[in-house]
Specification:
Lipid_A_LpxA; elongated; Acetyltransf_C_sf; lipid metabolism; alpha/beta; 6 helices; lipid a biosynthesis; 10-stranded parallel β-sheet; transferase
């Protein structure tokens, strides 16, 4: 019994010694790898902030400019003309190419690629998250693009761009691909060249925007939505899942189908965004007079719009005026016209 107890005690002591030694070595390695990159380097061509941590396997060009508190993980790469703001974090295997600027507190998840070596630049604002294997700011897929042309992407602040999303630069030097602030762009979405995206939009998985699409604010798309080139999506609109949108969607409206048709107002979205009862009631009345009119004497869309514009009880509501203007804008200039709608006129 005593012999067994002594053996067990010796074995426990040996385990504690090994654990202590392992922890000591691990702590020493952490201190070594951290202190290795705490030296401050500053000259005309590069700035490594004193608090940055760069993994030994990362490739950081000496001309790259890094802010304070930057963390660069294993097997990352940073180009010579890249600029990273304070507090940026690059997870393993993420890359920043070409003339690219990241604002403060941006995060690149594993496999994310930002920027391209083609002429032009990619500018990302602050507090953006680029998801796993997303590709942001690479050259466009427009056959008219010429390799010598400068192309641009500008992204605002506080955007959540999820995994496998692709966002392309503009197709020419006179244009920009622009993303606003506070957008949630879910997995596998695509935003093509020269698109103009506002703020606070939600694009569900597999939303695909072709070139030159314009999206205002607070637009919500459901999954697997496709938007044709040069289409315009008005603020607070909703696009149902699987929709193929080939014409413009005015403000506040809901569309669904292939090809997408107007299916009324985005009432749930309007209520969530703080529209009051009077505004929603007035919008419903105006929508009914324009798109569900039973008066066969007012057969054209233009006549029905004119009637609402002359309606004293409706025209003083700013939301109604905004909707009317949005409908008229769908037919202005080179715009694609409004999505199809069903007119219930008794015929």
């Amino acid at each position: 019994m005593n012999h067994n107890f002594a053996a067990a005690k010796e074995k426990a002591n040996m385990s504690l010694m090994k654990l202590s030694t392992r922890n000591s070595i691990s702590s020493s390695l952490r201190i070594f790898q951290t202190s290795r990159f705490l030296s401050y380097v500053a000259d005309d061509e590069r700035v490594y902030a004193s608090s940055s941590i760069i993994h030994p396997t990362a490739t950081v060009h000496p001309n790259a400019i890094l802010g304070q508190g930057v963390s660069i993980g294993p097997f990352c790469s940073i180009s010579s003309s890249a600029k990273l703001g304070n507090g940026c974090r690059l997870y393993p295997g993420s890359h920043v190419f070409g003339n690219t600027e990241l604002g403060d507190s941006c995060t690149l998840m594993t496999g994310a690629v930002v920027g391209d070596d083609c002429p032009g630049c990619t500018v990302i604002g602050s507090n953006n998250t680029i998801g796993y294997h997303a590709v942001i700011g690479v050259k466009c897929q427009d056959l008219k693009y010429k390799p010598e042309d400068e192309c641009y992407l500008e992204v605002g602040h506080n955007n959540d761009i999820r995994e496998h999303t692709s966002i392309h630069r503009s197709s020419k030097s006179t244009d920009r691909t622009v993303i606003g602030d506070g957008n949630l762009i879910m997995g596998a979405c695509h935003i093509a060249h020269d698109c103009k995206i506002g703020s606070n939009n939600i694009f569900a998985n597999n939303t695909l925007l072709a070139g030159h699409v314009e999206v205002e604010d607070y637009v919500h798309t459901a999954g697997a939505t496709v938007i044709h080139q040069f289409c315009h999506l008005g603020s607070f609109s909703f696009l149902g899942g699987g929709s193929v949108v080939s014409q413009d969607v005015p403000k506040y409206m809901m569309v669904v189908g292939d090809r997408a048709e107007l299916r009324g107002l985005n009432l749930v979205g309007l209520a969530r965004r703080g529209f009051n009862i009077e505004e929603i009631r007035s919008l419903k009345t105006a929508y009914g007079k324009i798109f569900m009119c039973a008066d066969t004497s007012a057969s054209s869309l233009e006549e029905r719009l004119a009637q609402v514009e002359q309606h004293e009880g409706l025209i003083h509501i700013p939301a109604v005026r905004a909707m009317l203007q949005s409908i008229r804008d769908c037919f202005a200039g080179d715009r694609r016209g409004i999505c199809k709608y069903r007119s219930w006129n008794g015929s």
